[in-house]
Backbone:
C-alpha cells in the first residue's frame, strides 16, 4: 500500500507545510491494509516531532464511542432503546416543552411523552443547540454547547437542564450535541460504575486501546489553536479543560485517543467485532424521520443524516465520498469516516475549525484518489 498512499501523504505533508497547523497524524485502512502517517511538530516553533503515538483531544469523535458503548448495554439487556431516561435520571421526569420554538421560557405545554434512550442516541430528545436568536438559545448556550465538557458534576448539569423547558417535543426534531452529554450520565447510572471504567471495560480493554479514555492529567498533548483575526492563537481554555481529570466525563466531546487507537476502534466496529451485526448496522444507518431530519439538514446539508451518535451519508455527497459512508468530525480538528466497503480514514489535528468553509477536503480528496475513485 505505500505506493497507493504516497500522494495522500504528500498532500497531508503539504497542508502542514502551508502552516494550516503545526502537525498532524492520519491513518487509513484501504483494502484491509492499515497505514498511519505523522508529520510536523507539536506546536509552531517546537522541535518536538509528531509521532503515531501522539495523544489528541478528539472532540466530537467521542460521540461514536458513546454510540457503540450504549449499544453494548442494549445488547446485554441493561438498556432498551425505548426505555424512559428518567428511570436513571429523575431530572428528566415531568418535562415541559416550549409552546413554540421562539416562545419565552415561561410559555410551555406538557411533554407528550418521555425522553428515551433512542432520543438521546439520535439527538432528538428535544434539547440541544439552537442556532437561532431565541430565548431558549440565550438561556442554554453556555450549558448545552461548547468545545469543553461541562465544567460541573453530572447531577448539577442535569438539575439545570431539568429546570428548563424542552425546545421541542421528544422525538420531534434533531438538535445537536447535548443528548450525548445526557447519555453519558445515563450510561454510568445504568451500568452502576463510573463512565471511565465502563469505557475501559467495554471498548478500550477488549480492543487493546492503550491511549483512549478520559484525560488523566498526565498526557502530553499537542498545542491546540483557534483562528482569529490576527492569526492562529493557542486555545487556552480548551487546553486547560483537558489538563486534569474532568468533573463531567462526556461522550459528547471529552475523550482522548491516538490515531492508531481510533483506527482500531472503527475497524472493530465496521467489522462487527464490537457489536452484533444488526446493532452495528442500526447505529451506522439513517435513524431520522423526515421531520427530524430538518434540524440535521440545517447543520449538515441535505446529503447527511444521523444514526446512533454518528453522521450517516444518505445522498451523493462530495466526489470523494460514497452514500452509506458514516463517521463525524470534531471541532478541535479531527475527522474520521468508514466507507461502505470497510475502507477507513482518520485525521487528527489540533486546529479548531473556523466555520463551514473550513474542513478536511484536503485529506478526503486524495484519500478518494488512493482508493481508486
Residues:
Amino acid at each position: 500500500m505505500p505506493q497507493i498512499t504516497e500522494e495522500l501523504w504528500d498532500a497531508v505533508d503539504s497542508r502542514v507545510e502551508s502552516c494550516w497547523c503545526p502537525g498532524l497524524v492520519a491513518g487509513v485502512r484501504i483494502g484491509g491494509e492499515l497505514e498511519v502517517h505523522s508529520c510536523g511538530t507539536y506546536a509552531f516553533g517546537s522541535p518536538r516531532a509528531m509521532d503515531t503515538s501522539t495523544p489528541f483531544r478528539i472532540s466530537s469523535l467521542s460521540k461514536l464511542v458513546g454510540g457503540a458503548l450504549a449499544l453494548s448495554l442494549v445488547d446485554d439487556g441493561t438498556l432498551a432503546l425505548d426505555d424512559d431516561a428518567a428511570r436513571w435520571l429523575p431530572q428528566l421526569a415531568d418535562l415541559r416543552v416550549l409552546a413554540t420554538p421562539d416562545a419565552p421560557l415561561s410559555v410551555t405545554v406538557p411533554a407528550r411523552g418521555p425522553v428515551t434512550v433512542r432520543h438521546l442516541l439520535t439527538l432528538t430528545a428535544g434539547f440541544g443547540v439552537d442556532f437561532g436568536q431565541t430565548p431558549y438559545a440565550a438561556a442554554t448556550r453556555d450549558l448545552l454547547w461548547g468545545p469543553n465538557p461541562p465544567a460541573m458534576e453530572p447531577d448539577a448539569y442535569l438539575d439545570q437542564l431539568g429546570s428548563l423547558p424542552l425546545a421541542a417535543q421528544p422525538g420531534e426534531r434533531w438538535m445537536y450535541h447535548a443528548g450525548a452529554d445526557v447519555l453519558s450520565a445515563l450510561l454510568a447510572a445504568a451500568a452502576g460504575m463510573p463512565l471511565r471504567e465502563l469505557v475501559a471495560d467495554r471498548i478500550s480493554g477488549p480492543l487493546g486501546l492503550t491511549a483512549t479514555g478520559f484525560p488523566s492529567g498526565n498526557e502530553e498533548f499537542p498545542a491546540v489553536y483557534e483562528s482569529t483575526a490576527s492569526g492562529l492563537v493557542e486555545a487556552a481554555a480548551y487546553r486547560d479543560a483537558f489538563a486534569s481529570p474532568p468533573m463531567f466525563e462526556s461522550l459528547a466531546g471529552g475523550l482522548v485517543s491516538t490515531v492508531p487507537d481510533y483506527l482500531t476502534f472503527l475497524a472493530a466496529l465496521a467489522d462487527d467485532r464490537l457489536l452484533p451485526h444488526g446493532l452495528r448496522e442500526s447505529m451506522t444507518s439513517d435513524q431520522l424521520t423526515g421531520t427530524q431530519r430538518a434540524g440535521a439538514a440545517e447543520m449538515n446539508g441535505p446529503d447527511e443524516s444521523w444514526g446512533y451518535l454518528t453522521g450517516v451519508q444518505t445522498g451523493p455527497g462530495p466526489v470523494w465520498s460514497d452514500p452509506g459512508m458514516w463517521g463525524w468530525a470534531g471541532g478541535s480538528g479531527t475527522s474520521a469516516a468508514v466507507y461502505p466497503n470497510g475502507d477507513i480514514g482518520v485525521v487528527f489535528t489540533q486546529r479548531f475549525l473556523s466555520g463551514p468553509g473550513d474542513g478536511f477536503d484536503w485529506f478526503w480528496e486524495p484519500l478518494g484518489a488512493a482508493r481508486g475513485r
Notes: The chain has a mean pLDDT of 95. The chain has one domain: 53-360.
